[in-house]
Design brief:
This protein has 231 residues and is mostly beta strands. The chain contains 1 helix and 18 strands. The longest helix is centred in the first third of the chain and has 17 residues, at 2-18.
Amino acid sequence: MLRVFLLLAVTSAAWAQASGTIAGMVTDPVDAVIPNAQVILYSSGVKVGQALTDKWGEFRIDSLRPGDYRITIADAGFELRTIENVRVEAGSVIFLGSIALKLAQLQPCPPVPTLPQVRLERAPAGTVAAIQGQVVDDADIPIAGVEIVLTPGSKVRILSGADGKFTIPNVPEGIYTLRASLASHADFIVRRVSVRRGFATRIEPELVMKRCPSTGLCRAVFMTEMWQICL
């Protein structure tokens, strides 16, 4: 048993002398440390090691074979940092010092579409009030069979016609949320739809529903008081 222990100790010491270490500290542009940044080492394009920075922003990767390494450092909100040709010699400890990450560039917002406006028209005789509108896709083609639901209080559920148009009749006075739903598209929600007795509330322009990606994951598009909130 003693002989086996001595053999392991000698082997470990020999490997420590034959391998090297890469260490460093990751900071932001104002020199504040970044904990939990991901550090990955590559050799000849193959991932050979990784580590997360600790609460002081430091990392250390041991037991590296002598050779040249490429290092990538990533953290949310920062640009990916790449360091090429870091040479490790047998028994060496390569300290890279303070490595500053740049803040990621914000993506420009997409152009804001024309938002739905609410226009009041005299309702047909005998009608308390109504809500009217039309649903189209992003190619401006009417969508039939879209379920239109009005909340709160109303249990009315109607479907848009072949021309994409819909009318919700006999709606009591009040302020409502209108939701247009179709399985293949993201929901379209218009909040604060005001209804007055004797008038038809017309939502203009059309409600443009975006088709869901092939993954089937959809998010609702909200229109709130003429402001668009993109999720």
